[in-house]
Automatic annotation (TrEMBL):
Residue ranges annotated for the Methyltransferase type domain, each copy included: 42-135
Protein name listed in UniProt: Class I SAM-dependent methyltransferase
Pfam families xrefs: Methyltransf_11 (PF08241)
InterPro entries reported for this sequence: Methyltransf_11, SAM-dependent_MTases_sf
Keywords from the named record: Methyltransferase, Transferase
UniProt GO molecular function: S-adenosylmethionine-dependent methyltransferase activity
Source superkingdom: Bacteria
Length: 209
C-alpha cells in the first residue's frame, strides 16, 4: 500500500489510537516553538491537524499541506472557522500549490516517507524568506535502526507505511547544500528517560541566503 492510501486509511483512527510517536512529536513542537510568533508559516504534513490547531494561534498566515485528502478532511473539520489555507499536495513534486514565502516551514513525522531529502530542502528554501526557519520533528533514526516504523492496526491486520531511514548527517548535509545553517538539535525520550533510545529527533535550521 502506498503512502497516500495508507494515510487515507489511517485517518479513520489516527486521532484515537495509542501513538507515542504522534504525541511526543506534538509536545516537542510546542516546546521548541513556544516562545516564538511568526507572520507566516507553511505546515508540511499537517495530517489531521494535531499541530495546526496550535500553530494557527502563533502565526498571522498559515498554509497547511498533506498528501492524504482523508487526513486533510479531518483537519478542515477541526479548523473550521479558522483562517487556514489547506492544500492536498505531494511534496516530492515542485511546491507550486502556493506562491507565498514564509517565515517558518514545519515538517512533522513526514520525512521518513521521503527518499530524496535534497529536493525537499531545495523546495523549502524556495518557500522561505531569508532568515526563515525550518522546524523538523521526525521519528529518531535510532528508533528506525531498532525496527520502529509508522504502522497501524485494522481488522485486516497491520499496515506498515512505506518509509526510508535518514541519518542525522543526511539532514544536515542536505540542509547545508541549500543555504541552511543548523540552529539546534534536540532529542525527546519516552517518559523523559534519557537512558533509553530517543523517540523523536528535532532539528531547526535557518536560511542564510
Amino acid at each position: 500500500m502506498n503512502t497516500r492510501k495508507a494515510y487515507d486509511k489511517w485517518s479513520e483512527q489516527y486521532d484515537s489510537n495509542v501513538n507515542r510517536t504522534r504525541d511526543l512529536e506534538a509536545m516537542a513542537l510546542r516546546q521548541v516553538l513556544e516562545e516564538k510568533h511568526f507572520s507566516s508559516a507553511l505546515e508540511i504534513g499537517c495530517g489531521t491537524g494535531k499541530n495546526t490547531q496550535w500553530l494557527v494561534n502563533r502565526t498571522e498566515t498559515l498554509v497547511a499541506a498533506d498528501l492524504s485528502e482523508e487526513m486533510l478532511a479531518k483537519a478542515r473539520e477541526k479548523l473550521a472557522g479558522y483562517h487556514v489555507e489547506f492544500h492536498q499536495a505531494d511534496i516530492n513534486m515542485p511546491w507550486d500549490f502556493t506562491d507565498q514565502c514564509f517565515d517558518l516551514v514545519t515538517f512533522s513525522l513526514v520525512l521518513e516517507h521521503i527518499e530524496n531529502l535534497d529536493f525537499i530542502f531545495q523546495q523549502a528554501g524556495n518557500r522561505l524568506k531569508t532568515g526563515g526557519m525550518i522546524y523538523l520533528g521526525e521519528l529518531h533514526p535510532f528508533k528506525q535502526y531498532s525496527g520502529s516504523k509508522a504502522r497501524f492496526e485494522t481488522e485486516e491486520g497491520q499496515t506498515i507505511v512505506p518509509c526510508f531511514t535518514h541519518n542525522i548527517s543526511d539532514f544536515t548535509e542536505s540542509a547545508k547544500k541549500y543555504g541552511f545553517e543548523i540552529k539546534d538539535i534536540q532529542e525527546f525520550f519516552d517518559n523523559e528517560d534519557r537512558t533509553s533510545i530517543p523517540r523523536i529527533l528535532v532539528m531547526t535550521f535557518i536560511l542564510l541566503e
